[in-house]
């Protein structure tokens, strides 16, 4: 059957398992938009391309399957870049689709024309301009396979408007929707086991790859069978319950932290699913005799900066299961690790103020959230000072429950990410936690949430400035530049977009009212005045304790 290039493009996307595209269309993808209407693909109209890309990124994190994000040429395409890079650096599957002018306009000065293939190349696994309609099936099949292959990430396809209008007789190629699992090389597992059995104080470092591989239960069983403690990256929180003495919580703060004591004690780090982009590996080596064994779905970078003795590449869950079975009941006991767990647990569960009114310290806000948290809730963190507190102090009830923008660490992800989560999982409680600098980065898509009648809550920590930059400048120079700003009237802002709003002025009001914010339907904005004076206590006291 004869069809247009755009119709073939849409048909191939659906055949490759793309069920959702977030975006802002333009003239150059009119043909594709009309073609999408003939498929079962949901198109989510957004108010800004960056928000659309963040939605697709979170969609990929939560499902393991790529969603599309779509923009037109020129400024529409450039607006996608931050969200696409976010997916790439946190290893989330994503297909970026851009329109483009006709092929005879390429390579010369022409209105809104820039080289989009080159623009997206540094922030994707692959970037391609489809030059003929006949190339469409192969381009989409390759894009989806690459986006899902270890390590997952973003892929870009550019569709010129004249290619979209071309006539062709063709259909989709078969695409393996689930990447094949590769088993690790048995001799490498044997080498790793010998190093582990010879170690006196081994430590498990769990990274985001554990969540992507759905290997959390397998890693928990290994830890519990061997009594080896687990330290998690920001994105791997929740593998062990907060009160489990093998849980040494998270690593990744930009200052010396109490968890550094664990890395000083260990002589072997068993790194499981840890991506070098999550935290510099060189900072985890605290003595000359520590060795590293890595388990991942892709080879460890040779320039990662730590001494990798054995690099095991293969299916993470299967490898961890094999190691658990081969340990033969050997266990380790370390009073130092147990004492560190008790110290961290006490600090993480201690409230910072008895005052019920006024500014609320970050740990106290997070304790109130944590007390109400249910295992199937989804929490998303924006970027700012609040991110560091969430990463350190919010204890999840399930693996992968807390999504933190970490690799790229771009501001503005949490609000659009919550929209993607609410679409994917109606009936589950969705909470985005933002700073007042972060939330306004994509505030326009509050309209998208209202239009789609999504049930989600966005909490804003209000301090009237860029708190994280202030924190860093004070640490480095004992002062900070002018970083304060004015905020909108939050109640008026919420009303303008059709959201409900609650302001909790103080700890008592937040404690009494937080559980109620999830009742009712539709999007809800809540604001809390935050006391960031605790920032210096956190970085200052921990730095001294680690010395």
- Determine the number of helices (DSSP H or I, runs of at least 4 residues): 21
Low-confidence runs: 541-547
Helical fraction equals 25-40%
Query: Number of DSSP strands?
Result: 20
**Alpha-beta content class:** alpha/beta
Tally of individual domains: 3
Strand content: 15-25%
Radius of gyration: 24 Å
- The CATH C-level name of the largest domain is Alpha Beta
Mean pLDDT: 93
Characterization of this structure:
The protein is of the alpha/beta class and 547 residues long. The protein folds into three domains: 168 residues, Rossmann fold (3-Layer(aba) Sandwich); 158 residues, Rossmann fold (3-Layer(aba) Sandwich); 188 residues, Rossmann fold. Helix content is 38%, strand content 18%. Helix 1 crosses helix 2 and helix 3 crosses helix 16. The longest helix has 15 residues.
